[in-house]
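Re-running SEC-C motif-containing protein to confirm reproducibility after the cluster update. Everything else is unchanged from the original entry.
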Amino acid sequence: MNNHLCPCLSQRPYSECCQPLHKKQQRAENAEQLMRSRYSAFYLGEVDYLIATLHPSKRRLDERELLQNTINTTQWLGLKVLDHQQKNELAEVEFVAFYEDSPVGQLHERSRFTCESGEWFYHDGIILPAIKLGRNDPCFCGSGKKLKRCHG
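Result of re-run:
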């Protein structure tokens, strides 16, 4: 996976994008980078990273089991970041994560993040309505094809 493009669709190799965060060699510099690395962690099954980047006040006793269930039952297909707003230690990132669901489902969310002692944490998110995709738009999976010729 090291030389492959990162699942977060940054167009960078995984080894230069989300892997250093997953391996605790770096910290996320901002909320968008953390959100992208969390998407990649869901994609790759990095449960420990997902728990570590969830704010401690939001962790549940069964968090590992819930995350593992999501990972086992969801095939992620692509990510589209729509907005990132940051003010000091608070930030919001709006994104759409696409997943396999007869044929494609969407998780459209405005996520909230906080930075404490230089470390970003995911707090929670508001689920938003699915976005409308045009048949001639680039496919969300990063293939470079039009949606109608790929996942459309």
